[in-house]
Amino acid sequence: MHSNWQHVIGQDRVKQSLQSAIRNQRIAHAYFFWGNAGVGKDALALEFAKTLVCLKQTVEACGECSSCKKMTALQHPNIKLIFPLPGSDGEKSDDDKPLENDVLEEVRKQISEKASNPYFHIDIPKAKFILIKSIRDIKRECSMTGAEQGKKIFIIFDADRMNDASANSLLKVLEEPLDGVHFLLVSSRKDAVRQTILSRCQMVQCSTLSDDEIAAALTERMAFEERQAHIVSRLANGNYTRALDLLGEDITAYRADAVKFLRSVLGSSSLKFFEEQDEYLTGNKRDNAEQLLTMLLVWFRDTIVVREDSQKNILNVDQETELNNFVGKFGTKNLEACMSSVERALGLLRRNVYLPLVMLSLSVHIRRILHAK
Q: N or C: at which end does the chain have fewer Cβ atoms within 10 angstroms?
């Protein structure tokens, strides 16, 4: 039987924990889903909410009842989605001022996209904060009789984007729990959320997705070719949302950049290297640097596979000739050390270390390893 939880990639530990809470009727008043971007926090919160309002009331949503169908379209009257919206961020903002028509249309459009793809990130233009108005609406909804019987659930996406006013208002709501009312907060930045709010939630940590989990999802859900799916999953760095974005990008260009960078590093002219890689070495191409380094990592991984005579397992299947030529020239060198250098550079880059320093240091290390006597 198909389970609604299968809509969420991986996260088996979290799924089992949430199902156990439902089975044992020990559902917390508030949950805080946290972890890296694109790992499925939103998807988990949505499927948990769907299961809680399903008329069958089991550990899996049936998908067939009227409640499930409304939730599938994200149109269930007892479930409210809260996210940052354009508007004043002050405590004394005009609470009754309606959203502009173009903003309302964008909200409708993005909620529809979210219904189709729970990994889609709602991001309304010019929205900076979760508005105090949104939290006051929650208070009003809590005190009103629901349009339908059953639980009321408020899902707060990007919970770290509450300002002082909205955080204070939510804290008061969380301090006075009501029967049948549940809050599901979601954030990629737990440290940016007040400890007083976190202390009133059951914490749900979501794991980073593995390359295999992302690749499998791309092949099954997007009918993506398996080898390409593995390359994209490597580039996505555990982020399925990023993987979906990458499907529309030119992976071939990233691979070409990586090979070009490697040729520059190993070339005889230092001056030419600085000229060719000026954008990386001056820090002007930071957005592309992570993709470049990830493709370098895939390249070195493939060179080791070729060296071990396992061509059938290479990811850059259309670059087999270039890989063989590279291994013919550098196969006796410490290719594992090259991989480690690239992994270290990626780690530094993700910690926002100065890009030119990262790239120059990596270049020196690779050149030293591959030109070693």
A: C
